[in-house]
Amino acid sequence: MSYYQGLEAETVAFRGQNGDPGEAYYARPTRAGRFPGVVVIHHLPGWDEWIMEVVRKFAHHGFAAISHHLYFREGSDAPDDIGARVRAAGGVADAQVVGDTAGAMAYLRGQPNANGKIGVIGFCSGGRHAYLAACTLSGVDAVVDCWGGNVIVDNPKDLNAKRPVAPIDLTEKLNSPLLGIFGNDDANPTADQVNRTEAVLKRLGKRYEFHRYDGAGHAFFNTMRDAYRPEQALDGWKKVFEFLDRHLAASTAAAAAE
Amino acid sequence: MCSYIVEKAALIGSAKGRKGWMRIDTANVYFDHPYHSTLDHVLAIDFTNEGEGGRDRVAVELSAESARALVDRILVALNSGQVAHGTPAI
């Protein structure tokens, strides 16, 4: 069979910050081999069907992918109800999200199919979280920020106990290559904020590539939203997979050892 | 980008959810990305009873235009209804 496709996807248990037991959605190719890992961070409304489609999409493209439920501590109700409660409480703390993301990375590393490389991708508020994680955690080999808003915080009043630092102020600590995907019609981040983020990355000599799309706004990959822009999304996904394939391939030594 | 901005309204009333009728004491109101609607942004309202933990809710996601129209219709219904029932308007 020259073109075998197969994947397995299910909810799994993982350990988040402080070892807290949580749930995550995990998908992997079923063919034999070792695969790079990708942590997929969901947006504020919650752990939804589209994010699970994204996890399966990564498995289809040869990655072992996991999306950890950022609100698992709120119980076992439907993810949308849990998301509503978390929103009413002002969201979850950045430190907790980063700690949970480290736990999701550890889950991937602990699988027998792991090739040892890990990428992190996030959408919307998850894009911001991905940026934060890459500036905070060790062991991130590549990071993708899809239209994460509030990476730059123009109004200091938007900082609080849960979100005490603007991610842009942590950029010096970024030690993995960054891919940024943005719609030029987005209101958060605006095109100007994207330009200012790029200027900081450039000044600090970071490895990055940004792709900006005309005719697209926020969340233009999301097939379940009117915001979906198929032409731009197809090109954006191509950029994502090229970037992750480049940075998450097993090292020559590890591949030779297999 | 998700905004985290939520307006809270204290309520006296009831709502019917998946477990039947329940008392409600709070409406969490926000304009942001939806969970279910295909719209980019919605005016969402979660009716809950925070006094009982707020675990159950009755939720709506409305377009901005329809939410404004609803506000108008609520006021019209209140005014005409209170006149019809001889209840003084608040």
List the helices and strands and how they pair.
The complex is a heterodimer of chains A (258) and B (90).
Chain A: E1 7-15, E2 21-29, E3 35-41, H1 49-60, E4 64-68, H2 79-88, H3 94-109, E5 114-123, H4 125-136, E6 142-146, E7 178-183, H5 191-203, E8 208-213, H6 230-248, H7 252-257
Helix pairs in contact in A: 3-4
Chain B: E1 7-17, E2 20-32, E3 42-48, E4 57-62, H1 64-84
Antiparallel strand pairs in B: 1-2, 2-3, 3-4
3D architecture notes:
The complex is a heterodimer of chains A (258) and B (90). Chain A is of the alpha/beta class and 258 residues long. Chain A has one domain (7-248): Alpha/Beta hydrolase fold, catalytic domain (Rossmann fold), CATH 3.40.50.1820. Chain A contains 7 helices and 8 strands; from the N terminus they run βββαβααβαββαβαα. Chain A has an 8-stranded mixed β-sheet with strand order 1-2-4-3-5-6-7-8, sandwiched between helices. In chain A, helix 3 (94-109) crosses helix 4 (125-136). The longest helix of chain A has 19 residues, at 230-248. Chain B has a domain at 7-63. Helices cover 23% and strands 41% of the residues of chain B. Chain B has 1 helix and 4 strands, in the order ββββα. Chain B has one helix at 64-84; strands at 7-17, 20-32, 42-48, 57-62. In chain B, a hairpin with a 2-residue loop joins strand 1 and strand 2 (20-32). The longest helix of chain B is centred in the C-terminal third of the chain and has 21 residues, at 64-84. Chain B is globular.
- In total, the number of strands of chain B is 4
Average pLDDT of chain B works out at: 92
**Strand adjacency order, main sheet of chain A:** 1-2-4-3-5-6-7-8
Indicate the overall shape of chain B.
globular
Rounded to the nearest angstrom, the radius of gyration of chain A is 17 Å
Oligomeric category: heterodimer
Q: Give the strand order of the largest sheet of chain B, numbering strands 1, 2, ... along the chain.
A: 1-2-3-4
Largest sheet of chain A: 8 strands, mixed
